Amino acid sequence: MTGNQHPAGQSVESTEQDVRAKLPRRGLLFGGAAAGLGALAAAGAQLAGAAPQDGTPAAQPADTVHGGGTVPFYGTRQAGITTAAQAHGVFVALDLRPGTTRAGIRALLRLLSDDAANLTAGRPALADSEAELAQVPALLTVTFGFGPGLVAAVDPARSPAWLQPLPAFTVDRLQPGFSDGDLLLQICADDPVTVAHAQRMLLKDSRSFATVRWIQTGFRRSYGSEKPGTTMRNLFGQVDGTTNPAPDSAEHERVVWGGGDIPAWTENGTSVVIRRIAMNLDKWDEVDRVAREESMGRRLSNGAPLTGTQEHDEPDFAAVSKLGFPVISDVSHLRRARPEDGSQRIFRRAYNYDAAPGSGGISDSGLIFVSYQADVERQFIPIQRRLDEMDMLNQWTTPVGSAVFAIPPGCREGGFIGEGLFA
Amino acid sequence: MTGNQHPAGQSVESTEQDVRAKLPRRGLLFGGAAAGLGALAAAGAQLAGAAPQDGTPAAQPADTVHGGGTVPFYGTRQAGITTAAQAHGVFVALDLRPGTTRAGIRALLRLLSDDAANLTAGRPALADSEAELAQVPALLTVTFGFGPGLVAAVDPARSPAWLQPLPAFTVDRLQPGFSDGDLLLQICADDPVTVAHAQRMLLKDSRSFATVRWIQTGFRRSYGSEKPGTTMRNLFGQVDGTTNPAPDSAEHERVVWGGGDIPAWTENGTSVVIRRIAMNLDKWDEVDRVAREESMGRRLSNGAPLTGTQEHDEPDFAAVSKLGFPVISDVSHLRRARPEDGSQRIFRRAYNYDAAPGSGGISDSGLIFVSYQADVERQFIPIQRRLDEMDMLNQWTTPVGSAVFAIPPGCREGGFIGEGLFA
After folding, report:
1. CB contact (8 A) between residue A226 and residue B23
2. Which residue of chain B has the CA closest to A361?
3. What positions does the domain Dyp-type peroxidase N-terminal occupy (chains A, B) (predicted)?
4. Which of A81, A121, A213, A402 could cross-link A93 (Cys pair, CB 3.0–4.6 Å)?
5. Who contacts A162 (Cβ-Cβ below 8 Å, separation ≥6)?
6. Parallel, antiparallel, or unpaired for β B351-355 and B364-373?
């Protein structure tokens, strides 16, 4: 395809075309072509003005306004995973309405895929009632995940073995209102208005087929407020995610997209575990910096292991203090989370949450823990089992929600997310 | 003062100093000096590196990372009003604990003023338990407002006449959980982590004296995602706030800071009305673009009045269509909100909200309507009365929260917000 084609034109009704024709041209970005599959997976962002409709470089100087940036929706793999985490993320779990047929699910997925393709390119969704709000894509990505119920409703024989709720952990205090679900919509962008609008459009087109089970809204540092590549901090102030495999690494490829013995429709897909981790800031307040660093095994200042000076220094678990105690405690989070073997790796892409506190409280804060891995059973669960057995951080954190979804592969223009499951 | 003094140094305990000494220097910005009063009121932002400790221009090139930007806290007037609206805003209303004395309120205000001075300068708050989170001020402002209860507890004789709940309007469906309160903390910044951290620190230092009555979290377009100066859109997609008096105008000065017959302690102060306006997106969806524009009296595309082509064109209320009907309907929001006389003007600084929907719904969205005016009774209420009587927009909007606060003047270094009330 070339840049001046309308990727989803065939599914857009003429009335909608009319509305679009009246919109200012700014923001009507045409996500630049199919590109190589690897390039799509890497989700390199393109900025407004850099790829005008005729495909030639823009004559005008690059716009410093960042809201025009887009991430291609179509590709072998879904965007929003390898994509550098945007500042805002909302995670919506839907339950299929009772009696929704296989054909209904297919129609829903086609509709939502078209909406996602349009919105991520800075175009209005189908029958977008607030079309102007679509004009600032701000690196919007929409990532779909399938819960056990959706796969079972379409073709139960082809469910990956790991697609089920996690085993119960002793630390869990799970609330149904933050757990499970049939269909995940992960909506991320560098602008909160963009996220709100995309969420509204996708839910509007879902409501004949599904109801909202839960919504979790999260945030990280805003676009450009810190140097790119700075590891996020959670609301405990900890550097959070240091050991994540770099998106362009072979390790990342193996951890997230490693496949293995999986149903064909999940090839170039992965899995996501979303756990809502309440962080007790009041109790955390009672702990001084030394004890905080001990519990984590890392320095608060820059995330370095207690045996090192830089964030990415390898921890030395053999190092002992003058008194003979390990410098990094055996029950620190760093030590306990460390894989026993190299296959127990995950790729994290977490968001902070800060909800209104309940009566008498002053905060309801925590982490929307989001982890991608090719195989939940083989990669995620062993780590979580170890942390469940012993992790000093458990004193201040409580999992209150948990959900597992299969992330289907991406799709080509004209296709829809999950089509392989219907093949 | 010079740039290398510590504005709140005298109130900082030595243990806290020790913690600060261990922090990396980056982000420990020293908000540049007292400056002219008008300049402070205009709240011009200064960027990290632009005003180093010795007061000379930074040698290093300007940092493109925006998180180091600060807005001075100390000044004749409080920041966060004339300050260009940051992307994120949280509004917290506190209730004083029963029996809190005048001395207690004074201690609370001093403590919170010190915290605000530190946090807005990119420094940790007193005993900041997540000190590293304070290093990205991102144009943080903290603005304090006093409810009727606080003023009555200190000196009831000096309460401005307008400091009371608004009269009941027929459109109101007010919830106590979004209404009234003794002390307002308005926390705004261009980074949501910054807002969350400041909120936590201020509430932590409040809790001996006060409890949380309500918290409303809102957002606008993110920093830099649109051209600076773009009028915000609300979640109905409407351009919202076109007629706001420009912050550097004489009109703004009169509307917001106009004073008049007021108690001396409120000089260089103003008032704020915060109303939570639920916007029924499901019902709004049923309305086509023509009817939407008619209800507003403005075009959706760019906010121009229906008699004009550009956002800031003066509306022509006398213009009629070929059929003899007014082009701008007499019951449009634009027509009804228009002041009958020039004194009925307000300065708006609204934020969108998008909360998790209740059971069966797909959205709980609306506007945190925030309006500053020198005199609530004279400026705000007449407008709201007219809108209450008739405004086409009322079909889709419902006020669910309402609160009025007096905004005291700013303070100098060493002082605290509201000190005049205790004089």
Report:
1. no
2. B212
3. 78-220
4. A213
5. A271, A375, A376, A377, A378, A404
6. antiparallel
| Cα angle value B410/B413/B417 (rounded, 5°) | 35
Q: What percent of chain A has pLDDT over 70?
A: 85
DSSP 3-state of A108: helix
Contact B131 A225 (CB under 8 A): no
Residue of B nearest to A212 (CA): B362
Taking CA atoms, what residue in B is nearest to A239?
Answer: B132
Rg (Cα) of chain A, in Å, rounded? 22
B87 min Cα distance to partner chain A (Å)? 9
Helix segments in A50-209, DSSP class H: 102-120, 148-154, 192-206
Q: Cα(A251)–Cα(A333) distance, rounded to whole angstroms?
A: 22
Instruction: State which residues of chain B have pLDDT below 70.
Output: 1-63
The DSSP annotation for B313-361 comes to PPP-TT-B-TTS-BSS-TTSHHHHHS-SSTT---EE--EEEEEPP-TT-
Q: Are A368 and A89 in contact (CB under 8 A)?
A: yes
The amino acid at residue A200 is R
**Is A277 in contact with A391 (CB distance < 8 Å)?**
no
Structure-token match 């809190």, residue found? B100
Taking CA atoms, B27 is separated from A26, A352, B134, B223, in Å, by 36, 21, 8, 19
Q: Name the DSSP class of B296.
A: H
Residue B290's SS3 state is: helix
Which residue is it, tokens 């379409």? A154
Determine the Cα–Cα distance for residues B247 and B250; give it in Å rounded to an integer. Answer: 9
Q: What is the pLDDT of residues A332-373, one digit of tens each?
A: 999 998 887 888 999 999 999 999 999 899 999 999 999 999
Question: In this structure, which amino acid lies at residue A398?
Answer: T
Q: B132, A301: Cβ pair inside 8 Å?
A: yes
Nearest to B408 by CA among B176, B88, B163, B208: B163
Q: How far is the C-alpha of B235 from the C-alpha of A199, rounded, in Å?
A: 12
ipTM score of complex? 0.86
pTM reported for the whole predicted model: 0.86
Q: Does residue A48 register a pLDDT over 50? A: no
B63 belongs to the catalytic site: no
Question: Which pair of structure tokens corresponds to residue A111?
Answer: 């509709």
List phi, psi (to 5°) of A21. Answer: -60, -25
Structure tokens at A224: 């450009």
Alpha helices in B23-82 (DSSP H): 37-42
Which residue is associated with the tokens 């405690």?
A329
Task: Please report, as a single letter, which amino acid is at residue A210.
Answer: A
Beta pairing class for B397-407 and B270-279: antiparallel
